[in-house]
Amino acid sequence: MPRMHKGNLEGAGLRVAVVVSRFSGEPCEKLLEGALDKLAQLEVSDDDIDVAWVPGAYELPQVAKRFVDGGRHDCVICLGCVIRGETAHFDFIAGGAAAGIAAVQRESKIPVIFGVLTTTDRQQAMARSGGNRGNRGADAAEAAIEMARLLLGFEN
Fold first, then answer.
1. Is 89 a catalytic residue?
2. Full-prediction pTM beyond 0.85?
3. Which of 48, 88, 129, 138 would bridge 27 by S-S if both were Cys, CB 3.0 to 4.6 A apart?
4. Rounded to whole angstroms, how far apart are CA atoms 60 and 22?
């Protein structure tokens, strides 16, 4: 029988960093609320959570890397919202944020979770940040805990 490696949702004792963009306002605030609520449900102590606000989604990777390099956290959650407008700005910002977060994750020994909404309009953003489509911030927090536990399991 092959060895199976799985994470779990036991958050107690894990140290979590959250980097959140403030540019889109309310959807980002609701993503953070969802993430913090989920972390509390998973028994992550408030004392083990650091939250950093950045101007926009493009700035998420730099602060995520700072948290990774600091070596004090078991996972980093990146939250933001990029709403398509009338210009190509959306493509550059959404693509840059995704590529930057992916680069930080590849270079890291801890999970760096992509929790950035990329939506066509504000209505879609609100639906995915606590509305009728759930809260992707909560989903990102759950993924972070599961991945942290999985990767910590490789150290044992």
1. yes
2. yes
3. 129
4. 10
- Overall size of the chain counted in residues: 156
CA-to-CA separations, 89 to 24, 33, 114, in angstroms, rounded: 14, 27, 19
CB 110 within 8 A of CB 145: no
pLDDT, tens digit, for every residue of 103-131?
Answer: 999 999 999 999 999 999 999 999 999 99
| HSE value, Cβ hemisphere, 13 Å, CA-based, for 156 | 6
Report d(CA 18, CA 31) in Å as an integer: 11
pLDDT score of 6: 92
Q: Which domains does the chain have, with CATH numbers?
A: 24-132 (3.40.50.960)
Site of tokens 């989920």: 38
Could you tell me which residues are beta bridge partners of residue 112?
A: 76
Residue 130, phi then psi, degrees to nearest 5: 120, 0
Mean pLDDT, rounded, for 45-73: 98
Tokens 């990146």 sit on residue: 78
- Strand 112-119 and strand 75-83: pairing? parallel
